[in-house]
Design a protein that fits this description.
Number of strands: 11
Largest sheet: 8 strands, mixed, barrel
Structural class: alpha+beta
CATH topology: Sortase, Chain: A
CATH superfamily: Sortase
Strand order of the largest sheet: 4-5-6-7-10-11-9-8
Number of helices: 2
Strand content: 25-35%
Distance between the termini: 65 Å
Number of domains: 1
Length: 219
């Protein structure tokens, strides 16, 4: 009973389920709506690069696109001639409140941690350190595994740091780009002399229709 209002137990249970349903629905709708608003704002301000769907996927030696559980992913068969003396390094992104998150070196497995694409540059090297991670509709559903859920919040000028082999490397964000899942051109560095870092995840949040790639350069 609430005041003089008596609510039948059956109605109370129904209202409880309805409330839970609304909460869950908002967890799904709000992130998607927020992403669309973000996308519109980036286009309006000319801050976002969007590549068209390629007529034919560009070829990168040793890289293939394989679908597992309806998820198309970059798979590398490149074997490094000289292996590093560490199998994991850590990533810190202050704006996203990501601190010392583990990244598996030369890995195609995103199920446990962030994955550094096999054969891509190691931290501090010339080339492109390519790191992939899952996104999710919200951290409520991600169980802390979808580290890149808020990757779109990064802005030009933000810093990203990597600690590898006892050395810290700092990169500064240059651009944010949305590409088709089959576009492997994002793996290659913009030039042959710079030291770059790319962070990639799926967008819209919780879906895998496109890829968001953040490009940064070592400073």
């Amino acid at each position: 009973m609430i005041g003089n209002l008596r609510i039948a137990p059956g109605k109370l249970i129904a209202l409880s389920f309805l409330s839970i349903g609304v909460v869950i629905l908002m967890q799904v709708v709000l992130p998607l709506l927020s992403f669309q608003i973000w996308l519109f704002a980036q286009k309006y301000n000319d801050n976002l690069l969007i590549t068209p769907k390629p007529q034919k996927a560009p070829q990168v030696l040793g890289i293939s696109i394989q679908t597992k559980d309806r998820f198309p992913a970059f798979i590398s068969s490149i074997i490094r001639e000289t292996k590093p003396n560490y199998g994991e390094f850590s990533l810190t992104v202050p704006r996203l409140k990501i601190e010392n998150v583990g990244v598996l070196v030369d890995s195609n497995d995103l199920s446990k941690k962030l994955a550094h694409l096999s054969g891509s540059a190691l931290p501090g090297e010339k080339g492109n350190v390519f790191i992939s991670g899952h996104s999710a509709l919200s951290q409520f559903f991600s169980m802390k595994k979808a580290v890149f859920s808020n990757l779109s919040d990064l802005k030009k000028g933000d810093q990203v740091s990597i600690s590898a082999g006892g050395i810290e490397f700092t990169y500064q964000v240059l651009s944010v780009k949305i590409v088709d899942p089959s576009d492997v051109s994002v793996i290659a560095p913009p030039d042959t002399s710079g030291r770059y870092l790319s962070l990639m995840t799926c967008v819209p949040p919780g879906l895998n229709t496109k890829r968001l790639v953040v490009l940064a350069k070592m400073i």
